[in-house]
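Notes for week 9. Today we move from apo structures to complexes. The key idea is that a small molecule is not decoration. When we ask for a structure prediction with flavin mononucleotide present, the ligand SMILES becomes part of the input, just like the chain. The input block below holds both the sequence and the ligand string. Read it once before you look at the output, and try to guess where the molecule might sit.
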Amino acid sequence: MRLVLVGGSLRKASLNTKFLRHLAKTLEGRGHSVVPFTGEALRLPLYDADLPGAPAAVTALQAGLLEAGALVIVSPEYNAGIPGHLKNAVDWVSTLEKSPWGGLPVLLCSASPGAFGGARGMLSWRATLANMGAFVFPGSVNVPHADKNLDEEGAPTEARTVSSLNHTLDAFLDFAAKLRA
Ligand SMILES: Cc1cc2nc3c(=O)[nH]c(=O)nc-3n(C[C@H](O)[C@H](O)[C@H](O)COP(=O)(O)O)c2cc1C
């Protein structure tokens, strides 16, 4: 399956970007193709209806999502919600004529130095994505204490997180394949 991976913060040392890279490697190792949107690809101007049109980075994201079998979002949690740059990216894409969101299977992931691993931010994501008709998988992968619980390559080191990741990824890929069959 072709999966788009969107996430991380804009800073270079983003834990979420690091984890996203590990997910990309894992998915590729299982024979899937992966198209990542991270870092500078997500540094977009704030949505403004007065701008003459969508920036090229927004239409590139839209095109990636239209071709995707499934989407994995790896999102930091800011004040128990969606970070501004990611919400802005979703808002931009939602203004375009051809929507990629309807029926799109989505897995939500997060990493945080905190004890909940960014899990509270998932609720905001679920509300936003449901509004656009995406099929958000019921489970999610949240990496707590991510400043200590990710190795150099972004792989979780804590047994409970590793097990949650493997189990949730298997179940999500099955869910996405059934939805797309
Ligand atoms: C504005 C702001 C709000 C934050 N709010 C939360 C929060 O609600 N929950 C949490 O676990 N971490 C919170 N954090 C800490 C982030 O989880 C932490 O900075 C994390 O490393 C950000 O992700 P990144 O490493 O991918 O940049 C917040 C950080 C910022 C800058």
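The mean pLDDT is 98.
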